[in-house]
Amino acid sequence: MMIMNMNIKRIAQGTFWILLYILITLAPVLILLAGDPPPGREFWRDFSVALGYCGLTMWMLQFVLTARFKVIKAPYGSDIVYFFHKQISLVAYGLVLAHVILLFLISPRLINLLNLITAPWRARAGVISMVAITALILTSIYRKKWKIEYNRWRIWHGILAIAAVSLAFAHVYLVGYYLNTPIKRELWIVYSAFWIGLIFYVRLYKPWRLLKFPFIVNEVIPERGGVYTLSLIPKKGKAMKFQAGQFAWITSGQTPFSDAEHPFTIASSAEKPESLSFSIKELGDFTGTIKDLRKGQLVYVDGPFGAFSYERHPHAEGYMFIAGGIGITPMMSMLRTLADRKDTRPLVLLYANKNWEGITFREELDALQEKLGLKVTHVLETPPDDWTGEKGFINARIIKEHLPPAREPNNWEVFLCGPPPMMNAIEKAMPAAGVGIGDYHLEKFDLV
Known about the structure:
Elements: H1 2-34, H2 43-65, H3 70-73, H4 78-106, H5 121-141, H6 150-175, H7 182-212, E1 215-223, E2 227-234, E3 247-252, E4 261-265, E5 276-281, E6 298-305, E7 318-324, H8 328-340, E8 346-353, H9 362-371, E9 373-380, E10 390-391, H10 396-401, E11 412-417, H11 420-429, E12 440-443
Parallel strand pairs: 7-8, 7-11, 8-9, 9-10, 11-12
Antiparallel strand pairs: 1-2, 1-6, 2-5, 3-4, 3-6
Helix pairs in contact: 1-2, 1-7, 2-4, 2-7, 4-5, 5-6
């Protein structure tokens, strides 16, 4: 009954935030329709304005999605919220672009407003806003292809986003044609104040809070596979409670007011929150500097976040963990927590790596098999000559062979984390392995 109540609560929370998002997005249009529209405007012009209003409101709400409000992300998980953030940004851009194109189709002479030298300020604000948001979207889509360094991209992403929304609000106020009643003006004043409040919260209040409760580096431990475990302890003794498998954002060598923060999964046990550990693979950029951190150095941690945790599914009779490479980190947090809690349920770990020597936490996993009802199966892409275990890649056959054949739906929960190509392939293999869509859970590293 308790599990059912938890699920109902999450569904209710998720439904509430979706409905609120829709209401905030449509509110300007609903108020526009409820009042008397300004005279002398045809339907398509009003329709284009409605599209622009919806698009602008979505731009504003993008700041809510990335502000890391735990109460909003709790029903879905951070990866789902960030995925929605990426996709809805394209929808919002399309709505505003449709607003512009419709106006040009209705009145071709309006194309002269693109000339920033002769155009009035209301048009300049709108044009520059579109240029800023176009640059933001292109640099986000092609960041890796264009080899834009993460921190530089993040700084410019924030600058372009703030510029685009500020200028779009200015465009609405300067045009003023659809702000002909007090309620319409008050709505946009409220929206503007809300957005300014979000900027204040994200850029000033949250960093100030982090500044008051820093962590310090306790040690940096080299692991197999080019991985370094960063061990942190709170400077002022304030432990961070978290669920096994969650992640946090780390800022080191900078103040929390900078944009130099990165998301990493907490690898330590949730039963020992007085010390956090993050196991990070050296891949370049920030990850390549982890080994250079020194004992006593200040680090700022914003978290915890995420819904990728066995603790959200306590009803399960057993758990299967499927990991690839550094995707083992949330699994280690869950396994260490299960061991500390002396959990006796059956556990299965399928762990994919390129070779035997590069298996991170290999020895600890052997030890955990003695403490838990855990069976570890290594799957190697290039195994040694005398290897008798699984070879190649994790597939439907391997998954099916290691799950109880007579299990009931929702009795076993499967957790999957690893490189995107691996996760995509295994997700497609789940039906053939007999795992229903509600019985497996994903953790994607590529949040940004």
